[in-house]
Every structure is written in C-alpha cells, then in structure tokens.
Amino acid sequence: MTQLTKRQRKIVDLILSKGKVKNQDVLVFFASLNEPLSRETATRELRELVSLSYLKMIGKGRGVFYVLTESHPLLKPLDHEKYLSVDQDVRAPGSIYFDHAIVSKLTGLLNEEEVAALSKEGDGFKKRIAGLPPAIIQKEFERITIELSWKSSKIEGNTYSLIDTEILIKEHREASGHTKGEAVMILNHKKALDYIFNNKETFKVFSMRGIEDVHRLLVADLGVPHGFRSKAVGITGTNYRPLDNVHQIIEAIEKAVGAINTAMDPWNKALSTLLMISYIQPFEDGNKRTSRLMANACLIAADLCPLSFRSVNVGDYQKAILTFYELGNASPMKRIFMEQVDFAVSNYFL
C-alpha cells in the first residue's frame, strides 16, 4: 500500500464507520463536507483504492459495494473513535493485560510500497540538506528541537506555549504562571535530543542502555526514579494493565529491542519503537516521552529528518495510544506517524 491522499483517507475512514459503501454513499458524504465530487471522480478514487489493496469490490453493476481488505494483524480496520467514545468500564469492564504476542507481530507495519514512498521522501530530504549552509542546518535543527520539546511536553499536559518554549530554550528564561517542573520537562527534551544528535552512531543499533540513557535525561530533576520499574502502574483513561514484574518488564524490553533491530528500514524501526516503549511502560513515568525521542533516534541515526509532532492533535495522539493498549491495533498511530513524516519533510530544511 502506498500513501493515500487526504481524499482517499476520508473514504477509508467513511468505510471504517459504515462497514461498506456504494458510490452514492461517497457522493453524499463529500457533499456533506461541502467538498462535492462527480460520480466519475468517486468511482476513480474507489477503484484506485482497490488497486492499492485498501478496498475490495463486491458485486456487479448497480449492486457493487466496497469494503476494506484485511491486512497486517495489528492493522485490521476498525472505528477506534466509536470504540473509545464508550466509557472505559463499559468498553472494557475488566482489566486488559499485556499481550506478549504483540512483539512477534511488529514486522511489516509499513509494507514495501509504503517504505519505498517514505524512502523517496527521505532521499529528497538528504539532497536538500546537503545543499544548505551549515548555519541554516543548525538553525533548522534548533527549530525542530524547540517544536518537539514543546509538543511532546504538551502531550503530557505541559501548559507552556510554543513562544514561551522558544524563549526558555534560547534565553533560559522561564515563563511566569508555570511550575518549575514544566520548564524542567521542556529543557530535558532538549538535553535528550542533543544527546541523540551527538551520539547518533550509538542508535544505529538499539540497546537497553540507550533507552535507559534517554529516559534518564528526560526525567532528570522531576522526581522520577531511574531504571526499570519494580511495581505496578495504572494509566488514566484505560483499564490496560502493563506488566508489573521487573523481570518480565526487562524480558519484554529485550524482545522488543531485538524485534526493532531486525527491521530492515528506519521507518519500521521508528514506528515500532513509538508503539512498544509506550505499550511496555518500562519506567514509572516518562514512557511516552521516551518513545517519541527513541523513535526520532531511529531516524536521526539514518540521517533522516526528525519528527517534531508539531501538527499532531493531542487528543488524536492519546486515542491512538489507547487503541494500541486496549485492542493491539496500530492503525491510528501508524497514520499519525506517516502524517508527521509528511509534515517534517514538507516544513523543515526547505
């Protein structure tokens, strides 16, 4: 499957919500969005999605309808918005426990066609950056550092604005009306990202030590213990219960690191990292922050453009994580990841 256009993604989302559609359903849907299509355009888009293996066409003549194809075991179509709209104790009345089998299913979250498309974008980035003056490159990396530090912290509830984050990082001046911890969280992101940039060869092959080092930088002076946790943790908004035995946690991390290192491309490595560190929850706090920085370490080690996550909707990100926690479905996070790659190569180092 190649990357979809925005219109094609809307069609896929429509079928996720309805189960199946006819050509007329697509016309009515886009008319409701004030984005009217001709019947010929709708038919062409549906047939293109069939050729890309996203859809199956069933029936003949006027009875033709379209459904989503089944694919990767962690990417089966679902309406996660509808699922998560139900209270957690209704959608999952009992505890949801860690699925040890997920690690063995990580291979190929991004298929060959998607990797080829992403690699083409990556090659374009490398050509652009090779022609830029060092001062411009440094300035752009500084911009990404500011925007990643801001957005990654915001996902965790930090209330600094982007402007205040820039002042904090550039001038070391804290914003009034915010806690000291918020400033520390942002500055820790910068320290961790600087560490990755300065040691990118280290991250070509992932290690337990590398994950711990990045986590240690991210939670410094925030009252969070270092090292893998030895007690249970609960997660707000979900009945998912991560592993609570330190030996099992270490074993899970070891298996995840092994699976990540077997990936043949940095894109699959980064997406798997983004998912698995959050899912395992190896630390008492700072797990999602560590997952975002380590995912970027995969890209930086391959001389690719890091992701700032600047344009991601915080609610969408949180829903994508909950969907993976509770259903073992990576589709929403995969979509966010690919959109953020598109955003990064379209907005930095131009």
Essential attributes:
350 residues; single chain; Arc Repressor Mutant, subunit A; two-stranded parallel ribbon; 2 domains
Q: Average the pLDDT over all residues and give the rounded result.
A: 94
Largest sheet: 2 strands, antiparallel
Report the CATH topology name of the largest domain.
Fic-like fold
As residue ranges, the low-confidence spans are none
Named CATH architecture of the largest domain: Orthogonal Bundle
By CATH, the superfamily of the largest domain comes out as: Fido-like domain
Number of structural domains: 2
**Terminal residue distance:** 28 Å
SSE topology string: HHHEEHHEHHHHHEHHHHH
Could you characterize what this model shows?
The longest helix has 22 residues. This protein has a two-stranded antiparallel sheet. The chain has a two-stranded parallel sheet with strand order 3-4. The protein contains 15 helices and 4 strands. By secondary structure, it is mostly helical. The two termini are 28 Å apart. The radius of gyration is 21 Å and the shape is globular.
